[in-house]
């Protein structure tokens, strides 16, 4: 289910086809990061670098040279070092970069200062994501300055820097069949993790215990890491959009909001479900829940080729505003309330974002000043919510402290869309039935 070498080669070919003549692209890998003192975080490759190479080691640099007779794909990487590999694991080395990862040429990263200026020389344009890696920015400029210092001998330094992200991120926006296959599996694993948390929930359980259920399900299915910090918010904590402390007890009568997704083979899932800690929605909880669910269904129905990016969001705004008026949390004409953004104290975020190798994935939302038109292969989240702040004195006390979000991952298809995370229940009756079944099984 992983991406094969042929697909990585196609990606490089597609990017080079978009580059100007006599140009070069330079892409650095991620670095190891220190967690504390001499302990490091688990390494995670830079998404752009991995998208083009499949190479998951630090201290590497990708160079693409369209039209280079001796090979267009050059990779700088760490040399083999048996003594270090005994401690920190296998390295591909330059030889492995060619044999295992398809590089035309590969060199030790220690030699990059000697070799890369020669690759830059004679190329008119450099595609590079300037400003993202400050230290590497300085290295790139030093290499260019090496060439500039030799112009009297006939050296030709690049004359222009172009933003690599524009072309590369547009390619990443459209998922291939192989990418969608991985994302479906990530969605399945994440969906089962959410169902597991629902089954495990009881009044008195702690948020971190539900987080542990989620992470265990990820790990036992080969997804060793979450795609982002898991959110488990019980009661009023569900009104905090990016609550990650996960340290409180879920009490009888609380709703529990879980926003969690695994990363599988460098692709993210992103699901949110909200459910009652005791297995039964109160009347107020169910009323607001049904509004959010209706909003999500309306938004998903708007995910299809030809519709623009903002249409799903517009659907959620209308349905949520209508629902808040019907329940008495807002009053007035729906159109006027939407124009005045009166819904924003309850629904303050967008209805979704692109999804892929990064949970908030790359790709422009507007093109030429207009909302982007949805096309086959794009993947986005759909995640409306209602959050009634515990200190909101403008509403009846019975509504306060209720936070609800429902989120699924949706791929645009030729004729509509496919929900990649549909396996986890979201109908209120289905959630209650799942939780009741789990309780019976433990008695």
From TrEMBL:
InterPro entries: Aminopep_P_N, Creatin/AminoP/Spt16_N, Creatinase/aminopeptidase-like, Pept_M24, X-Pro_dipept-like
Catalytic activity: Release of any N-terminal amino acid, including proline, that is linked to proline, even from a dipeptide or tripeptide
EC number(s) stated in the UniProt entry for this protein: 3.4.11.9
The organism's place on the tree of life at top rank: Bacteria
Keywords: Aminopeptidase, Hydrolase, Manganese, Metal-binding, Metalloprotease, Protease
CC cofactor: Mn(2+)
GO biological process, alphabetically ordered: proteolysis
Assigned GO CC terms: cytosol
Keyword Metal-binding: yes
Domain Aminopeptidase P N-terminal: 3-137
Annotated family: Belongs to the peptidase M24B family.
Name listed for the protein in its UniProt record: Xaa-Pro aminopeptidase
Species this chain originates from: Zhongshania marina
Taxonomic placement: Bacteria, Pseudomonadati, Pseudomonadota, Gammaproteobacteria, Cellvibrionales
